[in-house]
Amino acid sequence: MKILVINAGSSSLKYQLMDMEDETVIAKGLCERIGIEGSNLQHRPTGKEQVRIEKPMANHTQAIEIVLAALTDPVHGVISSMDEISAVGHRVLHGGEKFAGSFVITPAVMDVIRENIPLGPLHNPANIMGIEACQQVMPNTPMVAVFDTAFHQSMPPKAFMYAIPKDYYTRLHVRKYGFHGTSHRYVAQRTAEFLGQDAKGLRIITCHLGNGCSMAAIVDGKCMDTSMGLTPLEGMVMGTRSGDLDPAVVGFICEQEHMDVQDCMTMLNKKSGLLGISGFSSDMRDILAAVDEGNADAKLALDMFVYRIRKYIGSYAAAMGGVDAVVFTAGIGENNPRIRELCVEGLGFLGIAIDHEKNAQRGGERDISAPGSTVRTLVIPTDEELVIARDTRDLVCG
Ligand code: ADP
């Protein structure tokens, strides 16, 4: 059984075709500049040469048509006809409070994705375009929506409510939703498997550290708290996002600078975080290189990044009444031993300590805990596409 996974952005579309017999990737790729001059497709068929196809893509429907043509191409293709694709799984950002899991896409499901546009104004419309494009080109293929927010729906009200007049929750659904849910769910499940333990009884802190960063406190396999909020702006210091701050900062800056709120939100989302403090880059590799050259602003950005993570590890350990495993994932979490080391530095009092040699080694899933530490510290590479493909298979094939 072959499943196509789609992650549609406003002008981009990522895809991955998976063979679910052995859960391998048959081909993957990316369409860029959809609706903009210079549209192109980078197609990477497994075991064959990568190709770049420059072709106008006025909209997502044309992009999908070009992707399917590449997948079935006699030279670069990996399947003989699109009928070989049993189902399509779509990544959807915001499922609001209605979706605590993944769902086969029906008109009613589409209505809810549309209802949630105010909560995900950039992503949900793009996700809808991706779904509608696939429905147009593959009208008989079942489709599934997998939501970034769904895993966090198990949070209790004391964790997801903001202490503002309750009416804003009742009328406008203002609350913490959390994101990167597919990643946290996958990593927590793999952690239990890796440790050979039942998810029940495990208290896990997952640290998804990529361009966007979020953490989650997971008990018995269920999320009980997470760092991102109504939007992905809350929580950690990220590449370009501020993460937590006193909301009065927004009012103060808007008033002092005669800035409107929208511009201020753009500043907090796009010009803050590592980029805002360092003044030159949102990429952790650049920050670390500059720290080594003695750049004080880069050092401050790094210190703020790891300090915030340490604070959250402590607060989640307190919230869960202890912690059994701390897990690092995503671009920074999987690849950077130095950041991992700094994030857990001084947490020996919680039983968290890492082995420097194990931490320095490269590889897939691994335990980097120091001998004798009571908390297991792991590195688990995330695989959101695999979760989407599995959910799609399970829902379509029962
Ligand atoms: P996204 O959040 O967009 O899915 P990833 O999880 O792939 O992104 O993470 C991408 C980020 O990971 C890059 O912006 C880069 O800062 C960071 N990164 C990747 N490799 C390393 C590394 N070896 N050291 C530090 N940071 C890294």
Report on this model:
The strands form two sheets. Strands 5-4-3-2-1-6-8-7 form an eight-stranded mixed sheet, with helices on both faces. Strands 11-10-9-12-14-13 form a six-stranded mixed sheet, sandwiched between helices. It has two domains: 2-147, ATPase, nucleotide binding domain (Nucleotidyltransferase, domain 5, 2-Layer Sandwich); 197-379, Nucleotidyltransferase, domain 5. With 398 residues, the chain is of the alpha/beta class. Strand 2 (13-19) and strand 3 (24-32) form a beta hairpin. It contains 15 helices and 14 strands. It is globular.
Summarize this entry quickly.
The chain is an alpha/beta fold and about 400 residues long. Helices cover about 40% and strands about 20% of the residues. The strands form two sheets. It has an eight-stranded mixed sheet, sandwiched between helices.
Keywords:
398 residues, alpha/beta, Nucleotidyltransferase, domain 5, eight-stranded mixed beta sheet, 20% strand, binds adenosine-5'-diphosphate
| Helix-strand category | alpha/beta
Strand content: 15-25%
CATH superfamily of the largest domain: ATPase, nucleotide binding domain
Bulk shape: globular
Describe the biggest sheet?
A: 8 strands, mixed
Radius of gyration: 22 Å
Distance between the termini: 13 Å
Helix proportion? 25-40%
Topology diagram in text:
Blueprint: E1 2-8, E2 13-19, E3 24-32, E4 40-45, E5 51-54, H1 60-72, E6 85-92, E7 103-104, H2 107-115, H3 123-137, E8 143-147, H4 157-160, H5 167-172, H6 181-195, E9 203-209, E10 213-219, E11 222-226, H7 248-257, H8 261-270, H9 273-278, H10 284-292, H11 296-320, E12 325-329, H12 330-335, H13 337-344, H14 356-360, E13 366-367, E14 376-379, H15 384-397
Parallel strand pairs: 1-6, 6-8, 9-12, 12-14
Antiparallel strand pairs: 1-2, 2-3, 3-4, 4-5, 7-8, 9-10, 10-11, 13-14
Helix pairs in contact: 1-3, 10-11, 11-13
